[in-house]
């Protein structure tokens, strides 16, 4: 899959550790590259750089290309298909002195076209921090469009919003747009009002008099994640648990939920699985766990 690719000004060649490490080390030793790229510390020596490149390159499915000007030996940066990911993922970086000259914007489309064409991949995606407009620009240049966002904690504990960009070999409409829980409750209106007050969002539809069914989006957009609320007459409702992924700080969500008068059963706490969470209970016993990166 890692064949040489050429563009108008660039030559992308499979990484050769002996030849390319001294150049790539100039990026690997630079915190301004390693922070936004991999959220890692810079390397302290060419040997460590070599080891880290080799480790990434040895993951199943990984492909790494060094980026050069067409008729020069000097390596300016690297673009790779990350190994061992559930969805094939692209990643890129450039030595700092070459930023902003259109280099990755020229290299990334060639790699995406190759992977989705001759290499036979059905989809590729790239994860880009929302505060990295240059990388988002590269993704767009490569024909990737935004598919969603999520929040994760950085190495320093700081929350980072990550945007997922993606492109398919065959342009096609999504088959599944969302999966939603249908929450059985005795009083639909009261539950919708409580969830909106506690979590934010808006009602999207309401059916019946009294209300038998309602839809809720837990954000400002028509595509924000949602839940449906359905009326049940039985007294015995099997309780379920909703997990609401939210942006940090979770403490702000907690304050809002408290103000809405929810029945808190677990206060805000940092969990060993890397999430900060609190839990409240709805009248029928359903639990709502609200979690985020910090
Ligand atoms: C991200 C990075 C690879 C971009 O490469 P680059 O060669 O400088 O990017 P380009 O010059 O080709 O620019 C690509 C697009 O982003 C835009 N862009 C570049 N720098 C920008 C900036 N600082 N702010 C806003 N837009 C920017 C360009 O205008 C271009 O957009 P266009 O297609 O609409 O013209 C480079 O900045 C880098 O190595 N950063 C550190 C590592 C990193 O962040 N890796 C990505 C992690 S997801």
From TrEMBL:
Pfam families noted in UniProt: Acetyltransf_3 (PF13302)
Matching entries from InterPro entries are given as: Acyl_CoA_acyltransferase, Glyas_Bleomycin-R_OHBP_Dase, GNAT_dom, N-acetyltransferase, VOC_core
List the transmembrane segments.
none
- Per the database record, which ranges form the VOC domain? 177-293
Q: Which domain of life is it from?
A: Bacteria
UniProt xrefs under PANTHER family: GNAT FAMILY, PUTATIVE (AFU_ORTHOLOGUE AFUA_3G00765)-RELATED-RELATED, N-ACETYLTRANSFERASE DOMAIN-CONTAINING PROTEIN
Know the name of this protein? VOC domain-containing protein
Which source organism?
Micromonospora lutea
